[in-house]
């Protein structure tokens, strides 16, 4: 960056989801990190979070990014499309600056605040970060020790325990990982493909036990879908295998620490997908139970029918023997004709009864 000529810009490519990819992706990320470490851009004093940084400072950092990087704002001819792209790119850069600012403060806490037992030791010159103004550090020490911050810190520690900690993407964004997979395989990877790729080591082993459980569950659901037992989408399967403990977790699958809303629209939508997936699986299980029950009933009826047929054969056998002993042959008897004659006599009797009833009704009238 320091060797760049005045007016020179680095071209940064973006994928279809608006995530930076290519050779200068990491340079852009590092530059955003450098910007927020400068207190003239992102002050530390009396600022609890990025949203409290004055708007003019954010505008300044945005312009500094535009001065160094070509992020494709002039690629579209249509004015409306250029405006939309401008808003998307600015939103992405602000999210990147926000993340880098949080990481910078978190590093200050872990490297300089947590290493000492008391505020007195933390404020000693030899223990202070030499790249942070003394006044800024004094305020941070007071803020890190406040009850409000401690509650937030404990909540964040609990939230992080719900993550499937551990992946093999390293510092590379999942967006870039997906791009690399596309170049390697010549096929655009799906959500589950990227998840599996980034949660296996080079030896094809799960990077953590939680990742192993998630991958096994994913494999089981995919096999059920292939067999036609369930009809879940990749997104619904992903929603089921992700840890459920953290309610506002981030997901790196869409770039710079985006929220899960980038994938599912909102956490409530993610929960909806979970419930729909559970409902679909329960319905499939119930249908399977009904099919098993119907099959058992069919077996029972089939057995009963065979028993009746067996009894009929036995009855016919004994009847033939009996008739033979008295000099008759069963074939001499036309059972169908006798049955039809019997039915005809019964029908005639019914007709006579109906006529008699009708006559009685007429007399009563």
Any key phrases for this structure?
mainly alpha, two-stranded parallel sheet, elongated, single chain
Brief rundown of the structure:
This protein is an all-alpha fold. The chain contains 13 helices and four strands.
What does this entry look like structurally?
The protein is built from 13 helices and four strands. With 365 residues, it is mostly helical. The strands form two sheets. Strands 1-4 form a two-stranded parallel ribbon. A hairpin with a 5-residue loop joins strand 2 and strand 3. Helix 1 crosses helix 3 (79-113), helix 9 (209-226) packs antiparallel against helix 10 and helix 10 (234-241) packs across helix 12 (267-325). The longest helix is centred in the last third of the chain and has 59 residues, at 267-325.
């Amino acid at each position: 960056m320091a060797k760049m000529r005045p007016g020179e810009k680095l071209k940064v490519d973006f994928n279809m989801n608006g995530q930076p990819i290519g050779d200068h992706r990491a340079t852009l990320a590092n530059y955003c990190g450098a910007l927020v470490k400068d207190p003239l851009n992102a002050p530390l004093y009396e600022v609890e979070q990025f949203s409290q940084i004055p708007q003019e400072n954010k505008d300044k950092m945005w312009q500094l990014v535009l001065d160094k990087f070509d992020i494709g704002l002039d690629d579209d001819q249509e004015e409306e499309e250029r405006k939309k792209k401008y808003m998307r790119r600015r939103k992405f850069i602000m999210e990147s600056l926000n993340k880098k600012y949080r990481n910078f403060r978190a590093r200050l806490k872990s490297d300089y605040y947590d290493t000492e037992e008391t505020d007195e030791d933390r404020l000693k010159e030899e223990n202070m970060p030499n790249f942070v103004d003394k006044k800024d550090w004094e305020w941070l020490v007071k803020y890190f020790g406040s009850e409000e911050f401690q509650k937030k810190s404990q909540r964040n520690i609990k939230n992080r325990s719900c993550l499937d900690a551990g992946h093999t993407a390293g510092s590379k964004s999942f967006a870039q990982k997906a791009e690399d997979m596309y170049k390697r395989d010549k096929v655009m990877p799906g959500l589950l493909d990227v998840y599996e790729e980034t949660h296996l080591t080079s030896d094809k082993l799960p990077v953590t036990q939680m990742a192993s459980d998630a991958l096994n569950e994913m494999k089981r659901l995919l096999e059920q879908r292939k067999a036609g037992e369930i009809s879940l989408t990749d997104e619904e399967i992903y929603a089921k295998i992700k840890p459920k403990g953290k309610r506002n977790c981030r997901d790196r699958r869409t770039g710079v620490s985006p929220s899960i809303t980038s994938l599912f629209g909102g956490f409530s939508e993610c929960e909806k997908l979970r419930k729909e997936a559970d409902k679909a699986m329960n319905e499939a299980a119930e249908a399977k139970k009904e099919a098993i029950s119907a099959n058992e009933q069919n077996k029972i009826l089939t057995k009963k029918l065979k028993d009746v047929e067996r009894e009929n054969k036995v009855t016919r056998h004994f009847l033939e023997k009996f008739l033979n002993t008295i000099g008759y042959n069963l074939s001499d008897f036309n059972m169908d004709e006798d049955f039809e004659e019997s039915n005809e006599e019964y029908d005639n009797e019914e007709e006579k009864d109906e006529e008699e009833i009708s006559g009685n009704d007429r007399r009563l009238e």
